[in-house]
Amino acid sequence: MVTVTITTKFHNPSLSRRKEWQHAARLYRDTKQFCIDGWENGDFDKSVTTASIDNDLYSAIQNQAIREAKADHSKDGEVRYRESQPFAVNNQNWEIDTTENGTVVVGSPCISQWWYTPIEVYDDIVDPVDRLVKGDANKTRLQIYRRGDDWFCTFNIEYDADTSGETAIGVDIGERHILAVTAYGEGESMLVSGDEAKYVRRKYRSLRESLSEAGALRARNRVGDKEQRRIKDLNHKLSRRLIRFAEQFENPVIRIEDLEGIRENSSWSGVHSWHFHQLQQFMTYKAERAGIRVEEVDPSRTSQECSACGSMGTRDEDHFLCSECGRGRHADLNASENIAQREGEPCTA
């Protein structure tokens, strides 16, 4: 199953439409707050229905507000909604279609009526939107919200993946090479040195130690914040490079090692301090935006097995040698090729 998140702008909605949406956003906030306050004050139980909601929102929107309020209350207890809330409707109560001239429109209820409004379909979302319009995909909850002077909508599109003709992109994350990537069967690979990441860790670890010895705890905390920003920027750059590499090939699917498996099986002590999770998150959401599926695979023995014959080999720093078939390969690329060949579980959010 492929899940693609669509976030796009409405194209030139009328003034009356924008005013009604703004009013709906405030009513949505008030509906959620009404539920939270009622539960906190003991006015009613969690079985509250739209019969208790006294406003002009369509009942489908009221029901969605109740569901969201329940979720917020179960996590945080008493909640105060300070701002207007993006108002939402479940998957069964909105639709997407095209006009006679091919314009894609989203139809959803609000207060006075259903509104059918054109959306901007940029290149990255043409395929999933086309699947949805043709009835070859499913949709999830629709949210409508304002940013500045513009109005946006967001929803997910889900469809079964066609695995025929896919190009498997195996990704190995490590210390010596932060990314080792192989496009299986294409003869193409990419290695990215881990030197910059190691330099950042060494630099800021040394600064923290010096400041700790001097008792400058506030300055030490600021150093930690700077390190986090450097790491985040590096992870953004790395994930963008991966997506650009994958986009060269037809129907790419990115395969990465299961995060928990990496942590449990790695002999590198720094695996627990390095931001694997953030890097994988960036890879995943950038792949999702590009319409590329991501799978997590079993990480066991990816560094020990020969990617050509499956036998156990030996590794000497960057070199891998198979004792069975005699194949020599860069060790990290051998691992990424093993990852590419394994079937995984979809993790694209």
Automatic annotation (TrEMBL):
It holds the Pfam family Cas12f1-like_TNB. It comes from the Archaea. GO terms for molecular function: DNA binding. Keywords: DNA-binding. Transmembrane segments: none annotated. Residues 276-339 form the Cas12f1-like TNB domain. Coiled coil: none annotated. This is Transposase. The lineage of its organism: Archaea, Methanobacteriati, Methanobacteriota, Stenosarchaea group, Halobacteria.
